[in-house]
């Protein structure tokens, strides 16, 4: 895929070019150092994919896209700022990578590009009935919206999903937003190698476990980073031990 890197920082362009060397399907046809340069290079080189910075001298990344009338390439935004995430999705971006770009996140973006899938869907939208939905792993990022507040969250940072009636509460950092989604629907979407259904009300992030203790009737209790203590039911404790055993 013919690819143009657009970024005003030379070191950022060089690092992205280095990371992209691992992908034979990506052909870097050029680089642009600002918005005006990007528009000229897009017209000249006809790229199929842009890695597009947002904050640049002159025209920003959004203004560049607004000036493209036809033959608009696929776009993966690259930026050091997460506050533009919501607006990025309004431009149908394939992905939104925060600098410094992590190889795992770049790999997820390239896989999504190959599969011709849309970017991470907001957890507040969509239906569990959608066919062949992508399994979400720890490096995937999602929008979470609760009232007037919204977050752009890497799922690996979510330590706990808690069922609250028809809602699910996400626990990450010091935030606990609610989303209108059933725990069962999330359980079907989340990578079972990372996120484990502990009981009827909780899904835990296995990477966030600090301690494990025996509990009543063959169950277990785990303490997560952040202090949450979650019971693993007796039935699930069997699966838990099998999953974590050598």
UniProtKB/TrEMBL annotation:
- A GO MF label: phosphorelay response regulator activity
Keyword vocabulary terms for this entry: Phosphoprotein
Query: What PANTHER family does this protein's entry cite?
Result: STAGE 0 SPORULATION PROTEIN A HOMOLOG (PTHR37299:SF1), TRANSCRIPTIONAL REGULATOR-RELATED (PTHR37299)
Which organism does this record belong to? Catalinimonas alkaloidigena
User: What is the protein's name according to its record?
Assistant: Two-component system, LytT family, response regulator
Presence of the UniProt keyword Phosphoprotein in the record: yes
Q: Where is the HTH LytTR-type domain?
A: 161-246
One family name in Pfam for this protein: LytTR
**CDD domains noted in UniProt:** REC_LytTR_AlgR-like
Entry-annotated residues carrying 4-aspartylphosphate: 53
Residues annotated as signal peptide: none
Domain named Response regulatory is located at: 2-114
């Amino acid at each position: 895929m013919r690819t143009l890197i657009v970024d005003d920082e030379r070191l950022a362009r060089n690092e992205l070019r280095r990371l992209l060397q691992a992908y034979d399907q990506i052909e870097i046809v050029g680089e642009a150092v600002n918005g005006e340069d990007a528009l000229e290079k897009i017209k000249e080189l006809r790229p199929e994919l842009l890695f597009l910075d947002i904050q640049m001298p002159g025209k920003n990344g959004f203004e560049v896209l607004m000036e493209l009338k036809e033959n608009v390439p696929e776009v993966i935004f690259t930026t050091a700022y997460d506050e533009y995430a919501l607006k990025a999705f309004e431009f149908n971006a394939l992905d939104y990578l925060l600098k410094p770009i992590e190889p795992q996140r770049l790999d997820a973006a390239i896989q999504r590009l190959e599969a011709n899938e849309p970017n991470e869907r907001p957890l507040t939208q969509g239906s569990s009935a959608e066919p062949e939905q992508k399994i979400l792993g720890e490096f995937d990022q999602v929008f979470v919206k609760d009232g007037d507040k919204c977050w752009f969250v890497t799922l690996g940072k979510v330590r706990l999903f808690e069922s609250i009636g028809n809602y699910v509460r996400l626990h990450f950092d010091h935030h606990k937003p609610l989303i209108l989604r059933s725990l069962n629907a999330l359980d079907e979407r989340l990578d079972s190698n990372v996120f484990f259904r502990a009981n009827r009300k909780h899904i835990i992030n296995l990477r966030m476990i600090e301690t494990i203790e025996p509990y009543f009737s063959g169950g277990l209790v785990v303490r997560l980073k952040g202090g949450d203590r979650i019971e693993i039911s007796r039935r699930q404790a069997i699966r838990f031990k099998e999953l974590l055993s050598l």
